[in-house]
Amino acid sequence: MPKLAVVYLSTQGSTKMMAEAIAEGARERHVEVSVDNFFEWDPEEAASADGIAVGSSTFNYTMHPPIAKFIDKMIDAGVEGKVGAAFGSYGWSGEAPVHIAKKLREAGMDVIDPVLRIQYIPNEKDLLECNRLGKDLAEKLKKK
Ligand SMILES: Cc1cc2nc3c(=O)[nH]c(=O)nc-3n(C[C@H](O)[C@H](O)[C@H](O)COP(=O)(O)O)c2cc1C
Prior knowledge:
Blueprint: E1 3-9, H1 14-28, E2 32-37, H2 43-47, E3 51-56, H3 65-77, E4 83-90, H4 96-106, E5 110-111, E6 116-119, H5 124-143
Parallel strand pairs: 1-2, 1-3, 3-4, 4-5, 4-6
Helix pairs in contact: 1-5
The structure holds flavin mononucleotide (FMN).
Residues 10-15, 57-61, 89-94, 120 line the site of flavin mononucleotide (FMN).
């Protein structure tokens, strides 16, 4: 069974809701998923998964600095050729997922386009979109 790591930073829980829905979608397609806040993850362990979805809400027009550092450590552990996705809740500009996708692509990952952004708290329809992304990630992982 392919393995998917879902790593996120969420201050009020909106990006966390997205992460849980992405994880659920992938599980429904029979992928082994671990989903957790970035500070619970060891960057090397995240890098060892077959696919990695990384989420952060947008603060001051980018991702939060601690998750940027986490991504750099994960990249140092080796992520080339793996499947990726970027997501996050935002308020008005929503740059964080775009910046995450850029980092992952520059490290040689195959990142699903476009990134998934939800404004503020996800509603039911938004969560279905997140579930869909989880399923898309699972299908892509199974083809690798
Ligand atoms: C201090 C502060 C700065 C923020 N800066 C931005 C920003 O630059 N662009 C944006 O789109 N949203 C910004 N937001 C809005 C958050 O991204 C938004 O509230 C999001 O839903 C938080 O998701 P989370 O609960 O997963 O952290 C900011 C919020 C706060 C409190």
